[in-house]
Amino acid sequence: MNESETRWLSAEEQKVWRTFMQAFNDFNAHLDRQLRRDSGMPVAYYEILVMLSEAPDHCLRMGELAELVRSSRSRLSHAVAALEKSGYVSRCPADGDRRGAVARLTDTGMAALEEAAPGHVTEVRERLFDPLTEEQVKALGEIAEAVAAGMRPACEKAIAEEFAAEAVTEV
Amino acid sequence: MNESETRWLSAEEQKVWRTFMQAFNDFNAHLDRQLRRDSGMPVAYYEILVMLSEAPDHCLRMGELAELVRSSRSRLSHAVAALEKSGYVSRCPADGDRRGAVARLTDTGMAALEEAAPGHVTEVRERLFDPLTEEQVKALGEIAEAVAAGMRPACEKAIAEEFAAEAVTEV
DNA sequence: AACCACTGCTTGAACTCTCAACTAGTGGGT
DNA sequence: ACCCACTAGTTGAGAGTTCAAGCAGTGGTT
């Protein structure tokens, strides 16, 4: 923070901000608890299974999978290790690149996913879609789109700054 | 899940849902990383400090604080322990109820908060408010309100079911 | 006064996530 | 053929969260 002036939030912005954080933290916590309780896995793991289930052959390179579930490679690596221990996913070397690994959804994993899905979807519907009008759902989609769009430049900027920092550091 | 029919998401709902989760997970991750990097604390801890800073005397009972930041008592207990170790918060017995404890924001904690706030707020503004139009901000507020409203009954329902389960089990 | 269900908060263990190394393999220059 | 910077993925340690169990104090009942 070396901008000279912080643009603080107005009273109304504060209110929106807090309501928003409250609602969606609670919502996420709800989803996570439901899934942990009923299917013994956190939402993050569920989403890994979903992505794999939609992939051709139920297989994906670790890197692609990481992108799809928007998690760091490291996090994914740990997660897949855990899922492998549960027997839901198996890992094998990728062909074409001997560094690579592909994760594959096992039949047990697919079964677990099918078992978990109805409860999860029901929760999403009841807690998110049911309380909203159609226009609100549409608006939410557009809002999310806008925020996502505003996020991409941020990444690029971060990378650019990193480069700049390196350039300065290295003589 | 013993409802006979799961109300799956339509294609459009799917799209909204995924965009939403993507955008706001990324957004949250962003906030958290910024705060960890620049101020060495996760967003959850920052919010604890905020709540304390707004409380009369910078003091709050652990229970109230837990409500305010919407975390379990256990989580809060661990968090306050950590914040105490950093010297940002101190704990002392509540008077009137010898089980109780109150958390107090120390001067160091207040300073840390003031140091952290501008960077955090700037991030919120640039990543959330700036990309949205005024109407979208308003819509987001209403959406959050609706979702929050739809969450309260869920809690009550959960508690009711717990009671029901107990009633069945005992005897 | 002795009981007992309940509340307020803490604790420990298991689990997940983050961050910073680290290994191994790739591909382009020389 | 040999470098060397870069990419793919893993690992380990430490931080934070969850869940279930625990301790102590409270307040109503008998």
Concise synopsis of the structure shown:
The structure is a homodimer. The first copy, chain A, has about 170 residues and is mainly α. Chain A is about 70% helix and about 10% strand.
User: Which outline of chain A best applies?
Assistant: globular
Task: Count the E strands of chain A.
Answer: 3
Major sheet details of chain A: 3 strands, antiparallel
- SS content category of chain A: mainly alpha
The side-by-side strand order for the widest beta sheet of chain A comes to: 1-3-2
- Average pLDDT value of chain A? 92
Q: Over the alpha carbons, how many angstroms does the gyration radius of chain A reach?
A: 20 Å
CATH H-level superfamily title of the largest domain in chain A: Winged helix-like DNA-binding domain superfamily/Winged helix DNA-binding domain
| Oligomeric state of shown chains | homodimer
Low-confidence stretches of chain A at least 5 residues in length (pLDDT < 50)? none
Fill in the CATH topology of the largest domain in chain A. Answer: Arc Repressor Mutant, subunit A
Helical content class of chain A: over 70%
Series of H and E elements of chain A: HHEHHEEHH
CATH architecture of the largest domain in chain A: Orthogonal Bundle
GO molecular function (chains A, B): DNA-binding transcription factor activity
GO biological process, one term (chains A, B): response to stress
Domain HTH marR-type (chains A, B): 13-149
Protein name (chains A, B): MarR family transcriptional regulator
